[in-house]
Amino acid sequence: MPTGVHLRDVRTQLFDAAERVLLREGLTGLTSRAVTTEAGCAKGVLHRHFADFDAFLAEFVLDRVNQLAPQAAALRQSAGTGDVAGNLTNALTALFGSVAVAVVPLVTFRDELRARLRQDWPVGIPVLTEAVDIIASYLAAERDLGRIAADAEVDLLAPTLIGTAHLLFADRSATPDTRTLHKMVTTVIASVVRE
Questions:
Q1: Are residues 45 and 83 in the same domain?
Q2: Residues 23, 99 contacting (CB under 8 angstroms)
Q3: DSSP symbols for 130-144
Q4: Where is the HTH tetR-type domain positioned along the sequence (predicted)?
Q5: Of 85, 128, 131, 161, which residue is most buried, by most CB within 10 angstroms?
Q6: What is the distance between the terminal CA atoms of the chain, rounded to a whole angstrom?
Q7: pTM to 2 decimals?
C-alpha cells in the first residue's frame, strides 16, 4: 500500500471499509489487514488512530449504533400514520437489513471487544439494546395516541419484536420475506392494537 497518501475522514473510511468486509466476509474475514486493504490505506493508518484492533472495533460498533438515529426518528414520526404493524415491519426490515445483524455475532464472538464496549454500554449488545429502545419509544408514542392499548407493556413487546426479528434475519444468506416478518409483527402485537 502506498504511504503518505492523505485520507479524508480516516475514521469514516475505516468504519465503512469494516462494514463492507464484515458483510461480505463475515467475522473470520474481519481483520485489520482486510479493513485497511478495503479502505485503500496502509495497515499502520488504523493503528495510528486506534490503540489496537479491538479499540477500533469498539468505536466501529458504537458508530453503527449512532447511525440508527435517523431510523429511530423516522419511526417515531410515523406514529399515528399508516398501520402499526406495517410501520414496525418496515422499521425492522431497515434495522436488520443493515449491518446490525452482523454486529451482534461480532460483539458476542470477541471477549475483548465486549469488555471495551462495557465501558460505554454497560448492559446488553449495543445494536440490539438500541433497537429495543427505538421500538419501545415508537410503541409508547402509539400508545399515547390510543392506537395500541393503554396498558400495553411496550417494554416487553419491544424486546419480543427485536428478538424474534433477529431470529428471522440471523441467517444473513436468506433474508425473510416481508410477509413472514409482517405476520410475526401482527401476531406479537395482536392483543394490544386498537386501530
A1: no
A2: yes
A3: HHHHHHHHHHHHHHH
A4: 8-68
A5: 131
A6: 59
A7: 0.84
Q: Across the chain, which distance is largest between two alpha carbons, in Å?
A: 62
73/158 same-domain check? yes
Running DSSP on this structure, what letter comes out for residue 148?
Answer: B
Residue carrying the nine cell digits 471499509: 17
Instruction: Name every residue whose Cβ is closer than 8 Å to that of residue 130 and which is 6 or more positions away in sequence.
Output: 65, 68
95, 129 in Cβ contact below 8 A?
no
Q: What is the DSSP letter of 90?
A: H
Read off the C-alpha cell for 152: 400495553
What range defines the domain where residue 95 resides? 68-189
Among 146, 152, 141, which Cα is nearest to 192's? 152
